[in-house]
């Protein structure tokens, strides 16, 4: 979402979120596609993952059943930082909670059930 969106767009984004769906502002779609095509034209390598390495670590640890506090201790970061990473991961992947995240990680073959 952009800060400058019209109220109706913000309401639609909220409704999509309540339905468990992702929402991408229509104006952003064009920019994302343009960026992708430009990178492809230049031959730039596309990222293997949309997650940062730290977000991947946190994701695996969540899916393995670790609590936020345990993850913070394992990675030697604050609980608040773990919460921040988890929120970013859920948003990037369009997931709702730890359970959705765990299902995703198992289905993607990142960890074994």
Structural class: mainly alpha
Mean pLDDT: 81
Question: Number of helix segments?
Answer: 6
Strand content: under 5%
CA-based gyration radius: 17 Å
The N- and C-terminal alpha carbons lie at a distance of 35 Å
What string gives the helices and strands in order?
A: HHHHHH
**Helix content range:** 55-70%
Residue windows where pLDDT falls under 50 for at least 5 positions: none
Q: Characterize the largest beta sheet: strand count, sense, and whether it forms a barrel.
A: none
Shape: globular
The number of strands is: 0
Oligomer: single chain
Characterization of this structure:
The protein is an all-alpha fold. The protein is built from six helices and no strands. It has helices spanning 7-18, 26-42, 53-63, 68-75, 79-93, 98-107. It is globular, with a radius of gyration of 17 Å.
Jot down its keywords:
113 residues, 6 helices, globular
What's a concise summary of this model?
It is built from 6 helices and no strands. The longest helix has 17 residues.
Topology at a glance:
Blueprint: H1 7-18, H2 26-42, H3 53-63, H4 68-75, H5 79-93, H6 98-107
């Amino acid at each position: 979402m952009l800060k400058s969106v019209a109220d109706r767009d913000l309401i639609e984004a909220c409704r999509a979120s309540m339905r468990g769906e992702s929402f991408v502002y229509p104006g952003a779609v064009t920019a994302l596609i343009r960026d992708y095509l430009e990178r492809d034209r230049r031959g730039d390598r596309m990222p293997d993952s949309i997650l940062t390495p730290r977000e991947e670590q946190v994701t695996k640890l969540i899916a393995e059943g670790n609590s936020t506090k345990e993850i913070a201790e394992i990675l030697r970061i604050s609980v608040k930082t773990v919460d921040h990473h988890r929120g970013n991961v859920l948003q990037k992947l369009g997931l709702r909670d730890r359970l959705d995240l765990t299902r995703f990680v198992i289905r993607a073959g990142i960890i074994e059930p």
